[in-house]
Amino acid sequence: MRLTGRALAAGLWCAALLLAGCDAVETPAKPYAGQSVEIAGSWTGTEQANFERVLRAFGKQTGARVRYTSGGSDLEVLVSARVRGGTPLDIAMIPQPGVIARYAATGAAKPITGAAERAVRAHFSPQWQQFGSVDGRLYGVYFKAANKSVIWYRDDAFTAAGVGPPTTLDELTAVSQTLVDSGTVAMAVPGADGWPLTDWFENVYLQLAGTEAYDRLAMRELPWTDPTVVETLRVMGRYWASPRFLQGGPSGALQTTFTRSVADVFGRRPGAGMLYEGDFVTTEIAKLGLYRVGDGARYFAWPTVDGSAGAVITGGDAAVAFTDRPVTMALIAYLASPEAAAIMARSGGFLSVNLGLDAAAYPDATTRSLAERLLRAPTLRFDLSDLSPSGFGGGNGASMWRLLQEYLAEPTTDPALVAARLEAAAAVAYRGM
């Protein structure tokens, strides 16, 4: 049942929540007038402004006063401090399932129940419900999702080199060499930020080792010294070490931030022809204002390895409740609605896995294509580093980030040695859970 925002406000709150499969009932037009609810996330700048539009729509319909607090890169510090201080946020937008599980285990996170749970069940696939669940109970709704299995390229660079988008890793290597031979560096790698390197690992690993090994590694049932890990590191190191494959070489990549890497491909003085990162690159390309997404700036799916089927690595931001007040659950339910997703989708730089969202809400064909791949991927796995303890894979200065940066600095290092270092760091992090 598709509902307009006005219809929701007028009469479909159904026990003060919406879209739970129930019929309209007589309820106050603004059931939470005068009540306050606080929600925090990592979003700043344009993303924050876009999300605040969603929150204002909820406030207008319900009368609730919603305050957004940005924790930026220190969101986890903010959430933890508020929990320890006895003044928890009502909701936090948490990207790491491992962190959600930790808060659920301590009772700090509250299960999503009642009509709010029914709203999530109605609009999200079983797999996305599972991503937000701990021991079978629903704790998070993934309001924003990411497609992390795409490589962006500059159309004019490919045309000049006479190449097309590769579909296999061998073809990616060949295209990279042809770009180099034509005078263009192959790839910009934002090694300074760390997390893009974990995404490199996850995409190669999923393609090379398969879903069973990926799941076992994520669940700590497979050591990081396993031959599949070593081979994945070997593949990455071989590419990183190839002359002129990386903008600035390995040392230059280590000093390149995510935003800088986008400018290195799509800026005023482009150096590289390609950039690996997720769908959110579109926002940075648009800010530069020089290449149009879907025209001069295009993408291709992460190349397959050894004949493997295509697969998608995903991530996202889940709304997790830290209070179980009715107004908190009402906001959770609203974030699970197609209407809330549509507000954010129209602003760009956003993908939703809400099954009720009309794809026409996305601002361009490229974004619609990225969202479709996320919804229809035959193989979908959550970002492995986000499934790990924050000290290992899911936070600033995490061991996986640091060790892959060290490997990028010296990509000819024996990959077995890198794997052993990762295993040692994982053992420490998982013991501390």
TrEMBL record:
Pfam families assigned: SBP_bac_8
Gene3D superfamilies in the record: Periplasmic binding protein-like II
Signal peptide: 1-20
Keyword DNA-binding assigned: no
Keywords assigned: Signal, Transport
Family listed: Belongs to the bacterial solute-binding protein 1 family.
InterPro entries xref list: Bact_solute-bd_prot1, SBP
Family annotation (PROSITE patterns): PROKAR_LIPOPROTEIN
Protein name: Carbohydrate ABC transporter substrate-binding protein
